[in-house]
Write a structure and sequence with these properties.
Helix content: 55-70%
Radius of gyration: 26 Å
Transmembrane segments: 27-48, 69-89, 95-114, 158-179, 186-209, 293-316, 328-353, 365-385
Region (Disordered): 388-452
EC number: 2.4.99.28
Number of domains: 1
Keywords: Cell cycle, Cell division, Cell membrane, Cell shape, Cell wall biogenesis/degradation, Glycosyltransferase, Membrane, Peptidoglycan synthesis, Transferase, Transmembrane, Transmembrane helix
Distance between the termini: 72 Å
Number of helices: 17
Pathway: Cell wall biogenesis; peptidoglycan biosynthesis
């Protein structure tokens, strides 16, 4: 009997935890907490990983960290503004955001464009380089969600599936990025498009054909570049010669992870950042995290990204708004897909592609764009919390006298005990009926005073 009681209590506590985890207010809080935790961790690790190279280049160990913190402040300000926007406003701004980001990406082929490391994917504005492809991801999420939301009933037809989302929107976005020879960002854009189409509910047949065509195109692009073929060959051969040029970064990233062990060598005590590991504060910052914070820190980063994925899933499952669902699917594919590519490259599961770890790696454009996406996600999550957005307007006292009388009568009936239910059940029933008086409650009669 005692054992049965213990099991029953354990199950009850688990049910309470899962119920708490699925509440809209919990999802909204996690939508804020998880990105903030990644941001703080990223700022600390960028400061640590870049200290040596910053000192050698500028004479200050804090130069790169301060620069990243400045971009974090700008991104947080923008995310805060977006988070408090109504979903209807975000929907209205979706197509303009897409058009503006496409125009910015086209500027890389003008005299404003800057080439670096074989890629032409930056523009120089006021002495500061900006990477438009990072903002193009957010523009594709919002604009693509707007276009697909109007096509959902007819997406099983080939013409409506292709036009206008796949052609011309996705084709233009990916084509502009590939023209600048940035295969990593192009793959992320394709992942965003696939995620949005999946949430929109396209046929699995079309999805399979699209993925096959994308894989074939990626193979052609890899074969036509000697640098990409070298990275793939190194990945397939597992760096039998660690002194090869293409093996150097991969091998030292693995050295960093191995040195970290379970608990790490200590914050700031990385040895690989002393000019052994290229890009320790950017593409390979996950290796420095594993070295300084150990397996525990690396798993913590993965857990925070999993939390963002859970938030996206709950937002998708908790709304009937098609635009919100598709845009959230795009954000989920963007951040989680890019994180998997980055971490997979560091640990050797994928060839080195060269994409940053969202919210963690150094890079102002990537950080500001990712924080903007988090602002959109928070806005979507807040819209599902009772007492915010339209729900707040309905409960702000602007209701008609008939509605107020019905609400008072319903409240008095519940307090009189005619409905025996727990507060949680009553709240669930109110949420399910939209706050309206049940049909069995009868009509409330409002009496008027006689005129004097």
């Amino acid at each position: 009997m005692a054992e049965a009681t213990h099991v029953g209590t354990h199950v009850s506590r688990w049910e309470q935890f899962t119920d708490w985890l699925q509440r809209p207010v919990t999802v909204a809080r996690l939508a804020v907490a998880a990105p903030l935790a990644l941001l703080v961790l990223g700022l600390v690790m960028v400061l640590s990983a870049s200290s040596v190279t910053s000192f050698s280049e500028s004479g200050s160990s804090y130069a790169e960290g301060v620069k990243q913190a400045t971009f974090a402040g700008l991104g947080l300000a923008g995310a805060a503004v977006i988070a408090f926007l109504p979903v209807a406003w975000i929907r209205r701004l979706a197509v303009p955001a897409l058009l503006v980001t496409i125009a910015l990406q086209a500027l890389v082929f003008t005299p404003l464009g800057v080439a670096a490391k074989g890629n032409r994917n930056w523009i120089l504005v006021g002495g500061q380089t900006v990477q438009p492809s990072e903002f193009l991801k957010l523009g594709l999420v919002l604009g693509g969600a707007y276009l697909l939301a109007h096509k959902v009933p007819r997406l099983r037809e080939f013409l409506h599936l292709m036009v206008p989302f796949v052609v011309p929107v996705v084709a233009i976005c990916v084509g502009l990025v590939l023209a600048g020879r940035d295969l990593g960002s192009a793959l992320v854009l394709l992942a965003v498009a696939v995620g949005m189409l999946w949430v929109a509910g396209i046929s699995l047949v079309w999805m399979g054909l699209g993925l096959g065509a994308a894989a074939a195109a990626a193979g052609v692009l890899a074969v036509t570049s000697s640098n990409r073929m070298g990275r793939i060959a190194v990945w397939l051969n597992d760096c039998s010669d660690p002194h090869q040029e293409n093996c150097y970064q991969k091998v030292h990233g693995e050295y960093a992870l191995a040195d970290g062990g379970w608990w790490g060598v200590g914050l700031g005590a990385s040895r690989e950042k002393w000019f052994y590991l290229p890009e320790p504060h950017n593409d390979f910052i996950f290796a420095v995290i594993g070295e300084e914070l150990g397996m525990l820190g690396a798993c913590g980063v993965i857990g925070l990204f999993a939390t963002i994925g859970f938030v996206c899933y709950r937002v998708i499952a908790g709304t009937r708004d098609t635009f919100t669902r598709i845009a959230t699917g795009g954000i989920m594919a963007w951040l989680l897909g890019q994180a998997m590519i980055n971490i997979g490259s560091v640990i050797g599961l994928l060839p080195i592609i060269g994409v940053p770890l969202p919210l963690v790696s150094s890079g102002g454009s990537a950080l500001v764009a990712a924080l903007g996406a988090m602002g959109v996600l928070v806005a979507f999550a807040r819209a599902q919390v009772p007492g915010t957005g339209r729900a707040r307007k309905r409960s702000s006292g602007t209701r008609s006298p008939r509605t107020r009388t019905a609400g008072a009568r319903s409240a008095s009936t519940r307090s009189a005990g005619t409905r025996s239910s727990s507060p949680r059940a009553a709240g669930a029933r109110s949420a399910g009926t939209g706050g309206k008086q049940p049909a069995t409650g009868g009509r409330a009669v409002t009496r008027r005073r006689p005129r004097s």
